[in-house]
Amino acid sequence: MDWLLAALAAFNIFSMVVAYRAREKIRDTPAWGQTAYSLVATEMAWFWLPFQVLLAVIFYLFGALDSILGLIALIGLAASWIYLTFSAASSLASPALVERALRKGLGKNYLDQIDPALRSRIELKNNMRHWWRPFYMKRPGVEKLKHIPYGPLGIKHRLDIYRPSEIPPEGCPVLLQIHGGAWMVGSKELQAKPLMYHLATKGWICVAINYRLSPSISFPTQLEDCKRALCWIRTEGRKYGMNPDFVAVTGGSAGGHLTSLMALTENMPELQKDFPDVDTSVQAAVSYYGLYDFLSRHNPVHQKLMIRFIKNRIIFESPAENPELWELASPVAQIHPDMPPFMIIQGTIDSLTTISGASSFYEQVRKTSKNPSVFVKLPGAEHGFDTFHSPRTDAVSRGVHRFLEWIRTQHMAKKLQQTNLGAEADQVTASADTAAG
User: Fold this and answer.
1) Quick check: helix, strand or coil at residue 205?
2) How big is the CA angle at 363 (ends 358 and 367), to the nearest 5 degrees?
């Protein structure tokens, strides 16, 4: 038993070293293994810690501490629990962090400004019922429609719909979900399910899409496919219960990058040649751990690594050969005053995208945009933390819901004001015609 206890201690110590090693260090290739390993160590800490305590008690009862090895192993294991405790505590603290970020970005009384009918669906408190089944996603009252074509190119132009079983006559607001995977792998089935199922229970329709992937194609083909899906929502969405007047977009990692570009490149003719007359603006954007600058201008020491990874994988020309394309691919270079409201979510121990990159992008957005922006900085959160249920995942999903409902309320008020102004203008015109007659 002492060897089992020693193995558990070694595993834990290694996990914590991997999870909390420096993230800004230059690496020749992305830290895929580190990401997967530390994701389990951090996001499952709330479950993993009590389970390990139980294992240690069992090992003790079977004599694991009767040897020097066992005693040393217990000391090492207890030391590693300090980091697990920190991971669990940071996850459990997420609701307060998310709420603080929302109040900073939207105003202290933002909840009171949400339409009462929408506010009645908002959840503020933690609910543990999903944590104990972290990979079970289905919810009562939500149906899923699979593999619906939005374009001509087979499986790469397919989407899934998550929607309430009861749809109001006016239709439901829409969230377009763009998966990540370094622009080269991934599919619509793999990401953001906790968020999509949560929103579907609150009266939203969520649309998760596939799109063409590199290296068989080059950027901006991925972005063009995302815009094609948005056009499908605008032209065909009502058949499925959508209200295409309000479409928000979200995604993580490469999906966060494409989400940002969807929000920042609305109605660019060169990106929607097959549907030039369809509105490709979105009403809100929520980016999870995205990449915001292909040239890494916020951190020049990363620039060579960034360019080496992207060139010949994602973009088949160097920045010198086609600087305009690299600028187009960088959300930070597309920021403009009329961009839609933005929510940026980033973990501090992300192994693939940096907190400094997200912070730099947020500062540029905050300085430039006329619309509100929210930056949620999550201590102890790894890349892909929202893949399954956890205290942090569910707190962020609820925060995204509050953000979207606040934006939706503002959108509804603006449309009502425009309608009233139009009616007043018509009335003035009619009165003038009557007087002239």
Assistant:
1) strand
2) 150
Burial of 69 (0-12, 13-18, 19+ CB in 10 A): middle
Q: Measure the CA–CA gap between 314 and 262, rounded to whole angstroms.
A: 17
Q: Can you point out the beta strands (E) in 10-112?
A: none
- The amino acid occupying position 68 is I
Respond yes or no on whether the N-terminal peptide bond of residue 331 is cis (omega within 30° of 0): no
| CA–CA separation, 63 and 335 (whole Å) | 63
Which residue has tokens 């007359």?
277
Q: Which two tokens stand for residue 165?
A: 């079983």
What is the distance in angstroms between the CA of the first residue and the CA of the last residue of the chain? 101
- The one-letter code for the residue type at 363 is E
The DSSP 8-state label assigned to residue 352 in this structure reads S
Q: How many residues does the chain have?
A: 437
Per-position pLDDT tens, the chain of length 437: 778 888 888 887 887 777 776 665 545 555 667 777 777 778 888 888 888 888 888 888 888 888 888 888 888 888 888 888 888 899 999 999 999 999 999 999 999 999 999 999 999 887 778 888 888 999 999 999 999 999 999 999 999 999 999 999 999 999 999 999 999 999 999 999 999 999 999 999 999 999 999 999 999 999 999 999 999 999 999 999 999 999 999 999 999 999 999 999 999 999 999 999 999 999 999 999 999 999 988 777 778 888 888 998 999 999 999 999 999 999 999 999 999 999 999 999 898 899 999 999 999 999 999 999 999 999 999 999 999 999 999 999 999 999 999 999 999 999 888 776 665 555 655 555 565 55
Instruction: Annotate 96-151 with DSSP letters as a single string.
Output: HHHHHHHHHHH-TTHHHHS-HHHHTT---S--GGGTTSTT----TTEEEEEEEESS
By CB atoms closer than 10 A (0-12, 13-18, 19+), residue 316 is middle
Structure tokens at 241: 């219960």
And the tokens for 430? Answer: 């009619």
Q: How far apart are CA 40 and CA 383, in angstroms?
A: 11
- For residues 131 and 389, the answer to whether their CB atoms sit within 8 Å is yes
Q: Which residues are catalytic?
A: 253, 350, 383
